[in-house]
Amino acid sequence: MKNSFVAPALFCALVFFAVPHLHAQGEGGIKQAMSPEEFHKAGLDKLSDEELRNLDRWLRGDREKTAKKASAKTSKAKMDLIVSRVNGSFGGLSGGTVIELEDGTAWKQANVDDRFRGSPVDHPGAAVIRGVFGYKMRIEGVPEFYVDPVRR
Asked: What pTM does this model have?
């Protein structure tokens, strides 16, 4: 039981600690990234040269995949947030309110039961956030509420 835990633990340690060091080393490979003692303790000295090359390729590929995923998440996050201002005056929510923003997008109040009356404010700041359950809008001085995009 103990040995079945040690191998995955060593592999995880290898990936989390050696991979960033490999990146700093460039194309040197796992053997150059680790001390001889670390290399031996990880059991990598039992691998053939071909197996080590395959491991090095896999580690490089995994870093590239991780970087692409991180880049895609960053791009998606930018698309999931709109920050603008209301195009004109905003006086509140009446159940079917359509809000046009200065960026050219328009949003309709999704829940007709959401009501809010306040003093009209010229060009208040607004943000639309895409979440798991749809789009939420935040306007200065107003509790957040769900909206749907208006198709033009």
From this structure: 0.48
C-alpha distances (whole Å) from 64 to each of 12, 15, 29, 111, 147 are 18, 13, 15, 43, 37
Residue 99: predicted pLDDT: 94
* H helix intervals, the chain: 2-13, 19-25, 30-33, 36-41, 49-79
- Tell me the C-alpha distance between 124 and 83, whole Å: 11
Structure tokens at 27: 């194309």
Strands 81-85 and 106-109: unpaired
Give the model confidence (pLDDT) of 55-85 as tens digits: 788 777 766 666 666 665 554 555 588 899 9
Which residue has 């001085």 as its token pair? Answer: 141
Instruction: Please give, one letter per residue, the 3-state secondary structure of 44-74.
Output: HHHCCHHHHHHHHHHHHHHHHHHHHHHHHHH
- Domain parsing of the chain, residue ranges: 2-74, 81-149
Q: 56: which 2 tokens?
A: 């090095």
